[in-house]
C-alpha cells in the first residue's frame, strides 16, 4: 500500500511543495522579486517565501528538519547568517549545509532548499 503524495503550487516544470508521509519538501527558493538586491535583502525575501510555503503546507519554521543553502559567493555567508539568525527560532535550529554554487540566474545570490515536518 503506497501513501499518497500531495503536491501544492503545481506548475508545468515543478511543484512548489510536495508532502509525503508527514514530511514537507519545498522547491529551492530564489529571490524572484528582487534579483538585483544584496545578499541581506535576497535572504529576507527567500526566507519569507520559505515561511509562506511552509504555512501553505501546514507547517512552520519551527518544524524544519533540514536546510540547504546555496550561495553564489561564499563570502556572503556572514551577512546571510545575520538574517538567518534573526529568522530561525531559538531552540529549533535545523541541521544546515551552506555551500558556494553557480545558480541558474547570475543575479541570484542565494537559493534555499528546505525539508520540514508536517504539523
Please explain how this structure is put together.
- Helices cover 25% and strands 31% of the residues.
- By secondary structure, the chain is α+β, with helices and mostly antiparallel strands.
- Strands 1-2-3-6-4-5 form a six-stranded mixed beta sheet, covered by helices on one side.
- Helix 2 (77-87) links the parallel strand 4 and strand 5.
- The chain starts with a strand and ends with a strand.
For the report, how would you describe the main beta sheet?
A: 6 strands, mixed
The main sheet orders its strands as: 1-2-3-6-4-5
CATH topology: 60s Ribosomal Protein L30, Chain: A
What proportion of the residues form beta strands (DSSP E)?
25-35%
Distance between the termini: 23 Å
Radius of gyration: 14 Å
Give a quick rundown of the structure.
The protein is α+β, with helices and mostly antiparallel strands and 119 residues long. It has helices spanning 39-57, 77-87; strands at residues 5-10, 15-20, 23-26, 64-71, 96-100, 110-117. A six-stranded mixed beta sheet has the order 1-2-3-6-4-5, with helices on one face.
Amino acid at each position: 500500500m503506497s501513501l499518497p503524495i500531495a503536491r501544492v503550487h503545481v506548475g508545468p516544470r515543478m511543484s512548489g511543495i510536495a508532502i509525503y508521509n508527514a514530511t514537507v519538501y519545498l522547491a529551492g527558493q530564489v529571490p524572484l522579486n528582487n534579483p538585483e538586491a544584496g545578499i541581506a535583502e535576497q535572504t529576507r525575501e527567500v526566507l519569507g517565501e520559505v515561511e509562506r510555503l511552509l504555512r501553505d503546507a501546514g507547517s512552520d519554521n519551527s518544524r524544519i528538519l533540514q536546510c540547504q543553502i546555496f550561495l553564489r559567493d561564499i563570502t556572503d555567508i556572514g551577512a546571510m547568517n545575520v538574517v538567518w539568525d534573526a529568522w530561525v527560532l531559538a531552540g529549533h535550529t535545523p541541521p544546515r549545509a551552506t555551500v558556494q554554487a553557480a545558480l541558474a540566474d547570475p543575479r541570484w545570490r542565494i537559493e534555499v532548499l528546505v525539508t520540514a515536518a508536517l504539523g
